[in-house]
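Project channel, design review

CF: Before we commit to the Campylobacter hyointestinalis subsp. hyointestinalis constructs, I'd like one complete example in the thread so the newer folks can see what an input/output pair looks like. Taking succinate dehydrogenase.
RD: sounds good, go ahead.
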Amino acid sequence: MKIVIERFDRKKHYKQDYDIKKEDIINKTLLYALLFIKQTKDATLNFTASCRSAICGAYAVRVNGHAVLACDTKMKNLLGTYDDPDILNIAPIANFRVISDLVVDLEPSVESLKKIHPAIAPKDEFSPKKGCVQTQAKFDKIVKEWDCILCGCCASECNKLSADNSDYMEPFVFVHAFRAAFDSRNKNDMLHTKASVMGGLWNCVHCQECIDRCPKGINAAENIASLRIKAIKKGLTSGVGPAHAKAFYTDLVDGSGRLNEVLLALRSEGAATITKTGLVITLWRSGKLNPLHIFGEKEIEGHKDLVKMIKAAQAANKE
Ligand code: SF4
Ligand code: SF4
Ligand code: FES
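CF: and here is what came back for succinate dehydrogenase:
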């Protein structure tokens, strides 16, 4: 079979093919396959790896466009996913600057991590003598996020980062912000929450791709949603993001139960909606938006029961 690797020699990007026998790698990991290429075919191929055990987070790559952790990916399963192909394409993870071949620059992510202050400040009731303990239930709320190994797979898949990374941090940065903000031992959850808002918390486009590719099963999108709820509860309600969330709620509970695209835009962006007139006309012409809905819509069937369920969920959440 052929393994086609996207390479970068600091001057140009190019693809290089390597022919290998399936039997040499089939019972090994993807990391082994790449080491095999480096050791037997091309010593100039660059990539990073250290622990080989899905611990250090050093070696994520894209296979046929999707991020995987090479040391944690069995070739048998990988080839099975693609119906035993004769060609596999390997590339560096996306949304990072490529330094050399499959090696990417993680320094900007370190800077993002610093911004959200990933360490907690213990509450005043704790002391070296008393310790800094929490119940199992409270620990369970953040335990999953402790598994993050900063491999970058979630960031590689993130559609928001691909579209525009100027106002958004990597999904794993929000995972670490969540872990600190929701740690019951922390005396300053707002430090991490505010920094998350500043880092683009409301700009996530809910594509959920980050969840699919995390080798540790961490749900970055859910962490982002939880941080948003915390931000609103703590009074960080200014801006389009919180207004947009409130507009959804208004349609769902106080309105017809159906998302009213016309009012949603007006409620979210106010007067700035006027700048989107061209888009509104395009959506109207293609039948995706009805301007008459500005006067309201027919209540959906079962709306009253839906509202009851939402109120019950809210009450349970308060308990
Ligand atoms: S859900 Fe949000 S954080 Fe996750 S990949 Fe999509 S845009 Fe990025
Ligand atoms: S959240 Fe998952 S995919 Fe993202 S960096 Fe952490 S371990 Fe990797
Ligand atoms: S080599 Fe350490 S996580 Fe893969």
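RD: helpful, thanks. The longest strand covers residues 2-8.
CF: The domain at 106-234 is CATH 1.10.1060.10 (Fumarate Reductase Iron-sulfur Protein; Chain B, domain 2).
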